[in-house]
């Protein structure tokens, strides 16, 4: 594993990172059976934490961020009954786009019957003048389950950047067989939109989302009210999806609280997932 | 349509532009029973928390509703559906409706849009013969679709021969004006204030419709996250005037 350096040099030429991972359940244990990696994307080896049969893999990005025109592709295949946790090791940092070339990221995930995937979790930080497009497509079956968390930053908050990027588009679609159960797109273009208005992003800087889709939700009397605080600078909502799914969405100016709640909720959903 | 030989007993064969205009006004009449007066799409949460209290608040909110919500969500579905109906691309239309359903994160808003579409079909089918709408109703009965209003409305608009811009404009108009009427009751505001707000909103609606003409499915955006959270929180309000 190579440590990520915070001030990694910006590469001069465009880069196309690629990471294709395949997982299969073998003799009661999930194995990473295939791993194709092209820099700057890299995957750790499969780790079995606490001696469990499910595998955890760290996703690494060795360039320090996406620069104009860069593109990262992820293809994740989770076979029948396999149980996988993927952890991006750092946030996706998007550098300013020169010459109008957006950086992009494509994540394509296929979950077979009984497969479980936790993506823990995606963070995007679009720097000043950055232009970013991401597309995540997830195909699953009624018996597979997914836990997907993400936080979109307004910029480098420690430098006081707040929606000074040029454009930031995120797109998440989740299909269960032939049914679309989530199609969530955020196309933020601060110069063309009134993002600060009541009803839009208001005075909030961070957008958090946690998606949990699982057959275990059927007939489950879940209740997350005690896990979510509501404040003037931090609020959230809970919604059920069409099918066995839940979305928690946050608008917040309190990043540590947002992260804590995201983690608590993730743990709560993992408990549901692990009930027999 | 044959303009010289107009059969007034059948709306679909009525080639007269002014007659068609009246049909359009009729379905956008606030008394037309699609239930828009029962839905606030999350606005009621803001009213109860005193975020929308004055005439100016209401105008600001509705203006946001047009530019940051409708233009990036339902108006795109109206437009995309319009083009698919024109091309008789029914598979594409069903897929689009599926995406429309999935794109509405807040459950109450999702259900409201389905309910309005269903009620529109119930109201229009007995008085308007249309093969497309009947087919759409069958798909609904067979649970192939949920009936979302923007798409159902578009099918009707194509059948009636309205052009795309008129269809988008009137959709945005009635969606927005419906909210103003509801807000006037819920805040409450005087009728005069409501009229002033609508008057002020009309140029915004027109601008929004023009803007939405350039958008496509790939431009869909749920960045009215505040409204989405308000809709999610709506069911927890102590007392509610509206279903959503």
Automatic annotation (TrEMBL), chain A:
InterPro entries: UreD (IPR002669)
Keywords from the UniProt entry: Chaperone, Cytoplasm, Nickel insertion
Highest taxon listed in the record's lineage: Bacteria
Subcellular location: Cytoplasm
Primary subcellular site in the record, as a coarse category: cytoplasm
Complexes and interactors: UreD, UreF and UreG form a complex that acts as a GTP-hydrolysis-dependent molecular chaperone, activating the urease apoprotein by helping to assemble the nickel containing metallocenter of UreC. The UreE protein probably delivers the nickel.
Family to which this protein belongs: Belongs to the UreD family.
Function: Required for maturation of urease via the functional incorporation of the urease nickel metallocenter.
PANTHER family on file: UREASE ACCESSORY PROTEIN D
Protein name: Urease accessory protein UreD
Organism: Aquibacillus albus
Lineage of origin: Bacteria, Bacillati, Bacillota, Bacilli, Bacillales
